[in-house]
């Protein structure tokens, strides 16, 4: 059967993750053929560096694909089937502030959790809605597959403000962890596992993991994780060929302490910020946070490699890589384009998938994905511990969205106060007032 050729726009063309997605798209042309690839960004200079390298990569590996990079929404969003979005409103300069401002008050600052995530959410909602609106104006039948963070807040905002839009919010953390689980189990690929999982984004638990024959893999995994977290055997032995930065190594190790809270399940790594916020604050350097690490490593590496490719005019020895992050979004696009019915974890309206949880909460659960989009799979009732945590966290996320919609200072103060990461309402207010000052070019005015 001949597969229909697809037209893609990557929104946030200047993202450090764009080259990985391009490479993954090129590696999958037999399963997901492409006729047109476009980049869209509101920072022409940043995007051009990635685009110049991409132009060379495409010329060498798939010259039949039409490629264009633009800052013009009409040109970008006209005649597309998929928008693959990963924008960062305020870029790393604002991520650094999200992380450092809470630290002034001894509170951990994080990209997607606690006060940092709340600040980022208040910037992202408008940017993501703008892109969604461009898509619906210029290509009303297209789907938007959105990685832009903080995915939990963005997903709640898009489901409330654009309830009929074809947007699916996604996260690569579960597939990143599943990749590690597969290594612990000695499997060739994470795709050999069938999982049950529930939670909010960056706030969830695996309840069941089996191989394709139905054999239960949980006992073996739990035995490993309670001792080593998600550090892999080869990392323990020092024989791993996957490069990992110290902060991620610490996170994967810390997961064991997170797992102890519920010995029957396996947790998402991000729960460490909610269970051990003081440990995280103590472990962080307020002068050099993850944003600094990313700017010094991933951003430098990706942009210097793109610039090198553009200078030597060949990508034959390119050192850019495609990982689970890229394979996940390409698999999702393929599932929709060709009705593959792949089982994938996605962020969707609950509507009963978690039986005893808010029907309007955006939950992360396994879904069967076909040309109509995701069909969530029911995960049953959840225990009181997880339900209590999720009720509190979903209220934080919904209050942020309401604060953005209504321009409400009070609701944002409530959101910060309700976050498990913030110790009390007074500290919440101090952090909020500093965040308002730092975000005056991005947030709606709060009254
Ligand atoms: N959901 C996930 O699991 C997951 C995983 C990895 C990265 N991410 C997210 O992907 C995004 C990109 O991450 P990164 O580290 O590569 O960031 P980055 O800063 O390198 O790239 C983001 C790009 O977005 C552009 N941008 C910002 N606002 C825009 C707007 N309004 N319209 C168009 N373009 C805009 C910037 O100019 C920049 O080029 C972030 O939101 C990050 O949190 C999500
Ligand atoms: O601090 P960063 O920018 O490196 O990462 C923050 C993101 O972390 C998760 O994505 C990881 C992923 O889990 C890992 O397997 C690998 O692919 O790197 C990704 C990005 O570094 C998380 O899911 C994202 O939401 C965060 O933005
Ligand atoms: Mn994520």
- The shape, in one word, is globular
Helices and strands, in order, run as EHEHEHEHHEHEHEEHHHEHHHHEEEHHH
Summarize the amount of helix as a percent range: 40-55%
Radius of gyration: 21 Å
Q: Which structural class matches the secondary elements?
A: alpha/beta
- The count of β-strands is 12
- Average pLDDT value? 98
Q: Order of strands in the sheet with the most strands?
A: 3-2-1-4-5-6
Largest sheet: 6 strands, parallel
Unreliable spans: none
Query: Ligands in the structure?
Result: nicotinamide-adenine-dinucleotide, ligand LEZUNG72, manganese (II) ion
Strand content: 15-25%
- What's the N-to-C terminus distance? 58 Å
Count of separate DSSP helical elements:
17
Short description:
By secondary structure, this protein is an alpha/beta fold.
Protein architecture, described:
By secondary structure, this protein is an alpha/beta fold. Helices cover 49% and strands 15% of the residues. It has 17 helices and 12 strands. The strands form 3 sheets. The protein has a 6-stranded parallel sheet, with helices on both faces. Strand 5, helix 6 and strand 6 form a beta-alpha-beta unit. Helix 15 packs antiparallel against helix 16 and helix 16 crosses helix 17. The N and C termini lie far apart (58 Å). The mean pLDDT is 98. Bound molecules: nicotinamide-adenine-dinucleotide, the ligand O=P(O)(O)OC[C@H]1O[C@H](O[C@H]2[C@H](O)[C@@H](O)[C@@H](O)O[C@@H]2CO)[C@H](O)[C@@H](O)[C@@H]1O and manganese (II) ion. The site of manganese (II) ion (MN) has 5 residues, from loops. The site of nicotinamide-adenine-dinucleotide has 28 residues, from helix 2, helix 4 and helix 5.
């Amino acid at each position: 059967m001949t597969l229909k050729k697809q037209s893609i726009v990557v929104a946030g063309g200047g993202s450090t993750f764009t080259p990985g997605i391009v490479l993954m798209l090129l590696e999958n042309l037999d399963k997901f053929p492409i006729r047109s690839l476009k980049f869209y960004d509101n920072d022409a200079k940043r995007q051009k560096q990635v685009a110049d390298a991409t132009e060379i990569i495409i010329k060498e590996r798939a010259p039949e694909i039409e490629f264009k990079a633009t800052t013009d929404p009409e040109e970008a969003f006209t005649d597309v089937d998929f928008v693959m979005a990963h924008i960062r409103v305020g870029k790393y300069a604002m991520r650094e502030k999200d992380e450092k401002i809470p630290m002034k008050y001894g509170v951990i600052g994080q990209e997607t959790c606690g006060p940092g995530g709340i600040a980022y959410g208040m910037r992202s909602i408008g940017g993501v809605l703008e892109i969604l609106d461009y898509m619906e104006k210029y290509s009303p039948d297209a789907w938007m597959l959105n990685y832009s963070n903080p995915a939990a807040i963005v997903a709640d905002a898009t489901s409330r403000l654009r309830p009929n839009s074809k947007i699916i919010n996604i996260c690569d953390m579960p597939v990143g962890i599943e990749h590690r689980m597969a290594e612990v189990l000695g499997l060739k690929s994470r795709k050999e596992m069938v999982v049950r999982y529930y939670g909010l984004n960056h706030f969830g638990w695996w309840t069941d993991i089996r191989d394709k024959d139905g054999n239960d893999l949980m006992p073996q995994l739990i035995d490993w994780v309670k001792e080593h977290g998600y550090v892999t055997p080869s990392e323990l032995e020092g024989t791993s060929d996957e490069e990992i930065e110290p902060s991620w190594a610490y996170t994967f190790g810390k997961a064991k302490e997170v797992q102890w809270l519920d010995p029957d399940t396996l947790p998402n790594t991000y729960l460490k910020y909610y269970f051990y916020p003081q440990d995280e604050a103590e472990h962080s350097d307020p002068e050099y946070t993850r944003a600094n690490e990313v700017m010094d490593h991933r951003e430098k590496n990706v942009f210097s490699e793109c610039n090198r490719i553009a200078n030597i005019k060949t990508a034959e020895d390119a050192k850019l890589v495609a990982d689970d992050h890229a394979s996940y979004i390409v698999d999702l696009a393929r599932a929709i384009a060709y009705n593959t019915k792949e089982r994938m974890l996605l962020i969707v309206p609950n509507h009963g998938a978690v039986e005893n949880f808010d029907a309007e909460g955006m939950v992360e659960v396994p879904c069967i994905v076909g040309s109509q989009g995701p069909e969530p799979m029911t995960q049953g009732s959840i225990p009181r511990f997880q339900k209590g945590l999720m009720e509190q966290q979903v209220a934080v996320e919904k209050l942020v969205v309401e604060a953005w919609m209504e321009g409400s200072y009070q609701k944002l103060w409530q959101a910060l106060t309700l976050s498990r990461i913030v110790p009390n309402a007074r500290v919440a207010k101090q952090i909020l007032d500093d965040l308002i000052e730092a975000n005056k070019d991005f947030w709606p005015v709060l009254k």
